[in-house]
Amino acid sequence: TQQELDKGRQTHLLRYSNLGSLTRFTFDNLLPKGRSGNPINQEQFNRIYEAAKAFAAEPEGWLVLAGPSGSGKTHLAAAIANERVSQGQPAFFISTPDLLDRLRSTFNTNNEIPYDEFFDQVRNAPLLVLDDLGAQTSTPWAKEKLDQLLNHRFNSELPTVIVAIIPIEQLEDRIRTRLTDPDLCHIYAVEEKQALLGYSWGPEFELQKGMTFDNFDWRRVNLLPEQRQNLEQAFRLALDFAKSPDGWLVFMG
User: What positions does the domain IstB-like ATP-binding occupy (predicted)?
Assistant: First the structure.
């Protein structure tokens, strides 16, 4: 029946989207003015919210969201992907570190999806949502793959949402020039963190209050390569867990 066909297509689109637990991030459960008590910040967030909704309705060009961790960027980006899926349209969501890990894993001959097939899927996705740009390891190989991906989508003018966790000016030159192109890209700065709970730090936690993902440096020069790699993996696990807590995350050492 048509209902069964529609249900099957929706299931396929959800599986293709790679959203996983982020299917809960929608426009319906995102406050249009954010959670800031500052009217100026509310107005700014509302402009970004409306721009994201408009992009979800009719994806065109690139939408770039920049700002600190916890400001609502990933929720906005996932809401765009979820909205497209709900409309019966394809969208592919992936974080930059996960993308590079998946590409590396496809070199394994036992992998179900060959490297060329997976990379082509990402490069030509009807709508690509690339989260956590700036959290990846800056190796020559990683730079090359990101440059190939973004250059292809830029030249083809394919609809793309990019979430940058570091200031745009700190990105690699070639990536920055793509993201700041005035004809294709629209950049929105989500500047204030969105407080999810009415919790305030006590004076005894003054030191911990300043410990954020934004100022944590896992690229420490005094570490051995293996130690730096382990620290990077722990950082990325913590970042993912903070976005979508599930179960327990235990650090040992």
Answer: 62-170
Note whether residue 172 is domain-resident: yes
**The domain containing residue 215 runs over which residues?**
206-243
Cβ distance 64 to 90 under 8 Å?
A: no
Same domain assignment for residues 220 and 131: no
Tens digit of each residue's pLDDT (9 = 90 or more) over 79-113:
999 999 999 999 999 999 999 998 988 876 666 78
Question: What tens digit of pLDDT does each residue of 8-29 get?
Answer: 888 999 999 999 999 999 999 9
Global pTM reads: 0.75
Task: Please give the tally of structural domains in the chain.
Answer: 2
